[in-house]
Amino acid sequence: MSAPVNGPRQYRTAARRVRGLGSARTGTSHFIVQRVTSVALLVLSCAFIVMVVALIGRNHAAVVQILGSPLVAILMLLFIGASIYHMWIGMQEIIIDYVHDDAPKFAALLANTFFCVLTAVACTFAILKLSFGV
Amino acid sequence: MAETSTPRLKPRPLSPHLQIYRLTLTMAMSIVHRITGAALYFGILLVAWWLLAAASGPNAYAVFESFIGSLIGRLTLFGYTWTLIHHGLGGLRHLIWDMGHGFEEKEREMLTLATLIGSIGLTIVLWGGGYLAMGGAR
Question: What is the pTM of this model?
Answer without folding.
Answer: 0.82
